[in-house]
Design goal:
By secondary structure, the protein is an alpha/beta fold. The protein contains 8 helices and 14 strands. Helix 7 packs parallel to helix 8. The chain starts with 16 loop residues before the first strand and ends with a strand.
Length: about 300
Amino acid sequence: MAVKHFRAAKPPESGAHVALVAPAGPLPKSEELPRAQENTRTFGWEPIVGAHAMERVGYLAGQDRDRLNDINLALRDPKIEAIWCLRGGYGVMRILSAIDYDALSRAPKAIIGYSDITALHAAVQRKCRLVTYHGPHAREALTDFSRDSLRRAVVEQADSCGVAPNAREINAGVAEGRLVGGNLAVLSALCGTPFAPDLTDGILILEDINEPVYRIDRMLQQLKLSGALNGCRAIVFGACVKCADDAGGGGRPFDEVLGEIVHSLGVPCLAGIPVGHIDEQWTIPLGAIARLDTSNRSLTVTSYTS
């Protein structure tokens, strides 16, 4: 069982004010903001759009100070009950050191997003020990599958995962631990920083996109060499979208590379669960307790406090 105490924010109820912010990359299309607002309303929440949500400075959604200001205003505003990130991309790492973690600790709020938002999840877990939600961005066209899992996680604080019949058993076994992780590239980039997540007693959830297998290999090795994986209890890989196994000169199968790591650690592993840059995805309550059983390809959330 996880050794560190985590807590979850009060679930946002109907009428809750939910901040829509862009802490990383900009929205590519103007119609994505209205869709994000409508997605928010379908949960019965009232969308509050960050002042700089539509700005763009190259690959960033505005200047660092402006993206930071939108987050901190939402964290400090007692009327805001949750923060739903509009998209990922890149940019959260640039503002991690100035986020108001004290305000979040005093008044916990649900934080939702994935991909580059992994950096925010990791920092909040380190600084506040709060459950946050690795789930679809507000701008996305939500499928019924994704919407249902998001509701079960954020609103009901129930099991938002389940059986993944198409998942691949990389190393057999059963494990129980605290859900940690997110985007592999972001997690490896956080190594050596004060914001790297503690993977001790964790079921490590991973996903990525546009990374050839040799880079996946390198990032997994970085986590291993840093010692970050020493106390890990299991690894569960979601989708690795457009992760070609023939780049870098000579291909190697993805499952073979992943298998090397988990066999060396002696931990159970599944690959191919519905998490990542895909239309139908589970919302993972990072910080919650879960049970992995590779024999029936299931990941079950058992508690939102630990």
